[in-house]
Design a protein that fits this description.
Length: 179
């Protein structure tokens, strides 16, 4: 299939707009050292809160330095899906709000997870589940339920059984790993 001049122009315009928006975000960010924010607005929410004491995951919250380091790669990863023909939208991130809504509708009142505490992060059609479960066997069920949601590309389930021990995910107030 031949690429038309209009298609090429649209791709260049989309890439330029993404670059400009990343620059604007970087220039307008004023966070104190160590403060974390959900700079990119990735969906992050709890689907169940049945296990008090479950450590709060970091989710999409980044420091200003992490956000700046992530901006360029994020723009590239978002548009590469469209450029490769795997997405019909100009950025993989444009699917995230609809995916998040589908997850909330499907899992928020699911009886299997009533005694668990689980948080969801959706970014670039990827879904992360973090939190605490009463039974480690729920990992596979969670992954299966989430993979069935339209437009989900990958599912990562990082949960721990109970609330004791070190969680398999970064915590909200945990500093970034040293390089």
């Amino acid at each position: 299939m031949a690429t038309t001049a209009s298609d090429r122009w649209c791709k260049r315009m989309a890439a330029t707009l993404l670059w400009l928006s990343m620059q604007a975000c970087a220039h307008h960010a004023h966070a104190s050292e160590g403060e974390t924010r959900n700079w990119f607005g990735d969906p992050f929410f709890a689907i169940s809160e049945g296990m008090p004491g479950c450590p709060l995951p970091r989710g999409p919250y980044l420091s200003e330095a992490e956000m700046k380091a992530e901006s360029h790669g994020r723009a590239e990863r978002g548009t590469s899906c469209w450029l490769a023909g795997r997405c019909s939208r100009h950025s993989a991130y444009q699917y995230d709000p609809e995916i998040a809504g589908a997850i909330q509708r499907k899992l928020a009142s699911h009886p299997l997870f009533a005694g668990d505490t689980l948080w969801i992060t959706v970014s670039r059609r990827f879904v992360w589940v973090e939190g605490c479960v009463t039974d480690g066997g729920k990992r596979d069920k969670l992954e299966s339920l989430l993979r069935d949601i339209p437009d989900v590309d990958r599912v990562m389930v990082d949960v721990m059984q109970g609330t004791s021990g070190k969680p398999p995910y970064r915590l909200r107030n945990e500093p970034p790993p040293s390089r």
